[in-house]
Amino acid sequence: MKTIKDILYFLSLPLIILLIMAFKGLADDKKLENIKHTNPDRSFAVVELFTSEGCWSCPPADELIAKLQKGNQNKKLFILAFHVDYWDHQGWKDQFSKSIYTGRQKQYATWMSLSTLYTPQLVINGKTEMIGSETAKVLSGIQSAMLESHPENLSIKAARTSGKTIQVSYSTTSTAKSTSILVALVQKQASSQVAVGENAGKNLSHVQIVRELQQRELKAHDSFSFKLPENNDAWEIIAFEQNQKSGEIIDAAGIDL
Predict the structure, then answer these.
(1) Average pLDDT over all residues of the chain
(2) Rounded to an integer, what distance in angstroms lies between the CA atom of residue 229 and that of residue 247?
(3) Which structural domain, as residue segments, surrounds residue 230?
(4) How many domains is the chain partitioned into structurally?
(5) What is the CATH number of the domain that holds 128?
């Protein structure tokens, strides 16, 4: 026979669990805020999220990078959301997906000797990967990257040439071998009302969406041309140097349009 003490104990369990979850959430938010304080000079973190609107487990990862974007005070945290296309056959076509982004994820699988592709996958500085919704691992990975020092050799400029055309130029003092320069046109924010598939009925919010990615062999200086879509959204250019043998990103720069 249960006593009043036993009943009160069992009734209090849900409250205890909720309090633990609340304190964990506050701790994670505090870690997000502290990222900007652990950034020494000449450090950076390029965070690439491979995601899809057709994947039920992706929205938490999208929400995490939205928090990272909101708390990014040092401007040395470069966030790129690549929407892959292999979920599109499930019945919902992700409007931001492209096969080139799936190809980029496949390249990481080769570099990292991974046997399969998955979403949400998050890659930091081309060297470490993890499940994109695992907050503690993501924050730990970013903070580790922010404690490393790199030569600052890359600078970029952007100018509107005519209408919606943007000319992006870069210069670098890097002489690294087997290295490419990658330049991404990034849409800062967007949303979709998903009608079918695993996220049917949900309104999904996205940040740092890569809308175009161009890649060339690294030179001392070069320029790229992008055409902005016909809308008034906020945009950003993110450029980075990446070793094509290992996948390691050795420098990065960004500029708001």
Answers:
(1) 86
(2) 30
(3) 31-256
(4) 1
(5) 3.40.30.10
Judge whether 9 lies within some domain: no
Kindly list the distances between the CA atom of residue 78 and the CA atoms of 175, 208, 236, 243, in Å, as whole numbers in the listed order.
Answer: 23, 9, 10, 17
Token duo for residue 223: 């320029």
Residue 67: its H or E element: helix 59-70
Phi, psi of 227, deg, nearest 5: -115, 120
Residue 58 lies in a domain: yes
Would you say residue 177 lies in a domain?
yes
Inter-axis angle of helices 135-146 and 4-34, to 10 degrees? 30
Inside any domain, residue 239 = yes
pTM: 0.85
Report CA-CA distances (Å) from 224 to 122, 156, 250, 255. Answer: 26, 11, 20, 14
Backbone φ and ψ of 202, nearest 5°: -95, 145
**Paired tokens of 46:** 């390029």
In whole angstroms, give the CA distance from residue 25 to residue 75.
24
- For 117, 142, 209, the CA distances from 26, given in Å and listed in that order, are 32, 18, 27
Q: 3-42, pLDDT tens digit by residue? A: 444 433 333 434 333 333 444 554 555 555 554 434 456 7
- Give the strand order in the sheet containing 221-227: 154-162, 165-172, 221-227
Higher per-residue pLDDT: 75 or 101: 101
